[in-house]
Every structure is written in C-alpha cells, then in structure tokens.
Specification:
Elements (H helix, E strand, L loop, with lengths): L1 E3 L4 E3 L2 E4 L2 E3 L2 E2 L2 E3 L3 E3 L2 E4 L2 E3 L2 E2 L3 E8 L2 E4 L2 E3 L2 E2 L3 E8 L2 E4 L2 E3 L2 E2 L3 E3 L4 E3 L2 E4 L7 E7 L3 E2 L5 E3 L2 E4 L6 E7 L21 E4 L1 H6 L10 E2 L10 E2 L7
Length: 232
C-alpha cells in the first residue's frame, strides 16, 4: 500500500499528530511533497513505542518515522529507506523536540543541497530546546552536491549539550570519518562513531540495559528495544 500527497503533511498513520501515538506501526510506502514520515508527517505530540518499515520519498521534510516537528519520540524505530531532496533523516527529517531510546536502520539518500543524517536531517531548526539521547543509526547515508551529510545528524543547530550518548555505525553508513557525526560540525559533542563489531559486542555507553538488549539472533546483534522488539 502507498500513501500519496503533494504539498501537505503525509504520514503512514496520521498527517499531523498533536496528541499521542502509542504502540503503533505502519508498513506502507509514503510518497509526499511536504512533511512526510512513515508514521506521522508532523509530530507535535508524543510518538512512543512505535515503528515504521515502509519507504519515504519526495521533496521536503522526510523521515522514516516522522517528517518534521517537535514533541517527543521515545522507544521507537524506523527501518525504511528515505530518499529525496530537502531535510532527510532515517528517523526524522527536521526536529526540535526530544528523541530518546530510538533508532533508524534505513538508507538515507539526499539530492542536491540537502541536509542528510542517519537519524535526523536537521536538528534544532528553530533553536528551541531539544534533546537527542541514547539513540543510534546504521543505514547508508549519502547526499548530492552542496549537501550537509552526517552519520547521525545532517545539520545540527541545537544548543551545546543537546545530544548525548548517541551513535552511528561507521561501517554500514559509509561515513567513516569519526568527526562526521554531524555534517556541519566536526566532532559534534555527544555523537560517537562505532564499528559494527563494537555495536554487536556490547550495549553502547549510556544505553540502559533495562531498556535495551542485544542478542545475536535478534536484529543482527544490534541493540534493540526490549519493549519494542524488532519485527523479523
């Protein structure tokens, strides 16, 4: 199934969330032209313990889970690819809220003059209070000419200290420069590049073992959310 739209907020579940999305999932392809996400086009509420597996593509603010907004994303993940031009992230396209205990594994492919990140395309777009913590991304990250490309965040304009204990995979992402966690800030604090082997060896620093677990037969040995175990 595919959701189509142009110049609007389009999501696999809802276009605009200003309430609560809890323990929900979608598996449809989203093709829009505004703020587009696998679960919600815009989030100004709470997305909790949810996931999306479908691809998201077009031009605008594009994320595997949420296209744009603020609010909170917690205990959630996205596995679908994100492709287009604009602000592209494996989880969220452009965001100024809170992301905690979440991850993205899909490929993120940006066109020219895009902000492209494995987790978030642009973080803190209005310089409002925001936070990313205990989260990671593993998908391949690429962008066209004039793009800001980061392993975790494409373009970070958040306040210092707004990112903590968050990681990207330097093997699977193609972003091997350990200083390129964000595309516009070298060695952006709170972002660390890990090899696949390091991810699979033990939970990254800061990840709560009451929230996260690792097993060789689950999600290829990468960290997964105990309360939101990945689908096969």
């Amino acid at each position: 199934m595919t959701a189509h739209g142009k110049g609007i907020s389009l999501g696999g579940l809802v276009g605009w969330n200003d309430g609560t999305i809890d323990h929900s999932y979608t598996a449809i392809t989203v093709k829009g032209g505004g703020a587009d996400g696998g679960v919600s086009g815009i989030n100004d509420g709470l997305v909790n313990a949810s996931y999306a597996t479908g691809a998201v593509s077009s031009t605008g603010w594009l994320g595997g889970l949420v296209g744009s907004g603020g609010g909170t994303i917690s205990g959630s993940y996205a596995t679908g690819s994100v492709k287009g031009r604009g602000y592209l992230g494996g989880l969220v396209g452009i965001f100024d809220g809170t992301i905690d205990n979440s991850y993205a594994t899909g490929a993120v492919t940006g066109g020219t003059n895009s902000d492209v990140g494995g987790l978030v395309g642009e973080n803190g777009f209005q310089n409002e209070p925001d936070f990313i913590g205990d989260s990671y991304s593993t998908g391949p990250v690429t962008g066209g000419a004039g793009s800001d490309i980061g392993g975790l965040i494409g373009y970070d304009v958040s306040q210092p200290g707004s990112v903590a204990d968050s990681y990207w995979d330097i093997d699977t992402s193609g972003i091997t420069n350990l200083g390129q966690g964000a595309g516009n800030i070298a060695n952006d604090p709170g972002i660390t590049g890990l090899t696949t082997a390091q991810f699979q060896a033990a939970l990254p620093q800061g990840f709560d073992p009451k929230v996260w677990a690792e097993k060789t037969n689950v999600d290829d040995g990468f960290p997964y959310l105990i309360a939101n175990k990945p689908v096969k």
